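1st attempt posting a full record on here, be nice pls
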Amino acid sequence: MADAKGLDQIRRAARSDRFRPSTPATRMLAMNSNPPKAVVLVSGGLDSATVLAIARQQGFELFALSIDYGQRHRFELEASRRVCESLGVKQHRKFQIDLRQFGGSALTDNIDVPKDRSESELSGGIPITYVPARNTIFLSLALGWAEVLGAFDLFIGVNAVDYSGYPDCRPEFIKAFAELARLATKAGVEQTGRFVVHSPLISLSKADIIRRGVSLGVDYGLTTSCYDPDAIGRPCGHCDSCQLRLKGFAEAGLVDPLTYQG
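the predicted structure (as tokens):
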């Protein structure tokens, strides 16, 4: 068995996105039967499912948090349940907060979801599907639960390559939130732990994310990505999220397992 210092080194290694479960360090951690805890934001989409699988691969005990924020595409909440069950989370919590009270987004207000935008439109400006301060709110909720659990690792599926121009998907935001976590928590002030915000997808293309997920056994047929699904949850195939998803599968040389409208 490893001594206390050795176990501490193993846990620090487990917080690195380079950590792999096949290493001797992981096997030692398993012998200790006390793996480090991680709070993973799980929306039910492709990216968060991949991140959950990555956190599992890295040896964390998984605590998944899904947010019911009044989104129009409600099918993602059911998808989050399916994803969490398939990947064996320890706990899956759903937190309700009604961002419809503020509106300001096509996902929370009576605003049409844009469809069939061109490549230049997808890469230019912040679209109306941006939900004001959403990832800041979500990570704050994850941070609060992490404090209660005694967890110091937060996982989020933000991506700064194939994304729709959202400001809270950038590396600068993740870095700033990690500093906020240090300043705003008891553990940070008392220096009893350092919160790490993991964003393992942030520099990957959508195709690379899909390849990574497939290699980890993610069933993308359980996920949903559409901003404007029909009454039975079939994706539209024309919103920004559907376009990026379909493009990712095509570039990965794979077929999206979802059934699209029409």
